[in-house]
Design a protein that fits this description.
GO terms for molecular function: hydrolase activity. This is Lipase. It comes from Pedobacter kyungheensis. Keywords: Hydrolase, Signal. It holds the Pfam family Abhydrolase_3. By secondary structure, this protein is of the alpha/beta class. The protein has 2 domains: 93 residues, no CATH class; 261 residues, Rossmann fold (3-Layer(aba) Sandwich). Helix content is 35%, strand content 18%. It is built from 12 helices and 8 strands. Strands 1-2-4-3-5-6-7-8 form an 8-stranded mixed beta sheet, with helices on both faces. Helix 11 links the parallel strand 7 and strand 8. The N terminus is likely disordered.
Length: 372
């Protein structure tokens, strides 16, 4: 199925981030005499059918996104090769189409972006750096890791989350394009994530950043990477982040938790996809028990204060709860919030999903407090 192309960078930057990657980031801009404010836009999104069997409590705006995603008719991720999966439509495409169809106004970006390639062991990775347009710095810094199960997605797909954090926190965000599996097996993504963090520490002044105020953040697989960066910084005795924001992180390998069972067939993430991601990234399934993958088995002592955001309709919901409990047991200060009626990958959908807007504001407040 041909991917719908996206022409307007502003849409990508503020509209949404999501789980799956696309090869293009261009989309036609909507021009109209009538535009909608954020509040009226959300109210205008009405699902076409009844709630899905796997998510009876789903919010109407969230359901509208899922219905749009389903309308593309793509084959299930778990039936495809990694290359094929990266060509599927994304929830980002769905949100962009809803923005266009409902003539929703997207504010102009409040950040400038630049790109930087850095050397890592065995190759190089790309960083996208978001810098606030106002203020002279030094700014606090957030090293951000996108989701996608270590296999799919890219910086464009998760642009909205990274930009939102930069704008709402008033921070420089460095979004990391770590290398993906199966071309790059475990623990390459984890090592790339830490190399990017080290680079940010060493180059904070040149970025107009404050080297004493660096946090990490990530979603799904990226949440796992962010937590691992904190663990590695502690073990290597370099500066640990002042805070870690973990949004529905992958935190353990048991796919028989209550949330996995309850939301086995959910969208945009289901149990079968998680098995597919695991098989693609790991060298052997035994590695699923490695504390880098199963964070609940890791030594979590002396990690930074942590904010964990979970979604109700998500196989990974219980991962976040279990990790929060393990962190608390290790003496780590934990702040957590669950958002009802939304699915995995809702966080970047602030343009159309009210819960995403609320979650971004909560995350930004947590980070601003940490930077003080």
């Amino acid at each position: 199925m041909k991917i719908r192309l996206l022409k307007n960078t502003a849409f990508l930057l503020t509209g949404t981030m999501l789980l799956f990657a696309c090869n293009s980031n261009t989309k036609t801009t909507v021009t109209s005499d009538t535009t909608l404010t954020d509040s009226t836009a959300a109210a205008s999104l009405k699902p076409a059918g009844p709630p899905p069997e796997w998510g009876k409590t789903i919010k109407p705006e969230m359901q509208a996104v899922i219905e749009k995603l389903s309308s593309y008719g793509d084959k299930p991720i778990e039936t495809l090769s990694a290359t094929e999966a990266r060509r599927n439509h994304t929830p980002t495409n769905a949100v962009m189409d809803l923005i266009e169809e409902n003539r929703i106004t997207i504010p102009a970006p409040m950040v400038d972006t630049t790109g930087k390639d850095i050397a890592v062991n065995g190759g190089k990775i790309h960083l996208r750096i978001y810098t606030p347009k106002t203020g002279n710095g030094p700014f606090p810094l957030i090293v951000y890791y996108h989701g996608g199960g270590f296999v799919i997605a890219n910086l464009d797909v998760y642009n909205a989350s990274a930009q939102a954090l930069a704008e709402q926190v008033g921070a420089i965000v460095v979004s990391v394009a770590y290398r993906l599996a199966p071309e790059n097996k475990f623990p390459i993504a984890h090592n790339d994530a830490f190399a990017a963090y080290e680079w940010v520490i060493k180059n904070a002044f040149d970025l107009k950043g404050d080297p004493g105020k660096i946090a990490v953040a990530g979603e799904s697989a990226g949440g796992n990477l962010a937590a691992n960066v904190s663990v590695m910084a502690r073990d290597k005795q370099i500066m640990i982040p002042v805070h870690q924001l973990l949004v529905y992180p992958i935190a353990q390998a048991d796919m028989n938790t209550l949330s996995y069972k309850t939301y086995e067939k959910a969208k945009p993430l289901n149990k079968a996809m998680m098995g597919w991601f695991t098989e693609k990234y790991l060298n052997t399934m035994i590695e699923a028990q490695d504390p880098k993958i199963s964070l609940v088995n890791a030594n979590l002592k002396s990690l930074p204060p942590t904010t964990i955001i979970t979604a109700e309709i998500d196989p990974l919901h219980d991962d976040g709860v279990m990790l929060a409990d393990k962190l608390k047991a290790a003496g780590v200060k934990v702040y957590s919030k669950n958002y009802e009626g939304v699915t995995h990958e809702f966080f970047g959908m602030a343009a159309v999903v009210p819960e995403a807007k609320a979650a971004q504001a909560y995350a930004a407040d947590q980070l601003k407090t940490a930077f003080k």
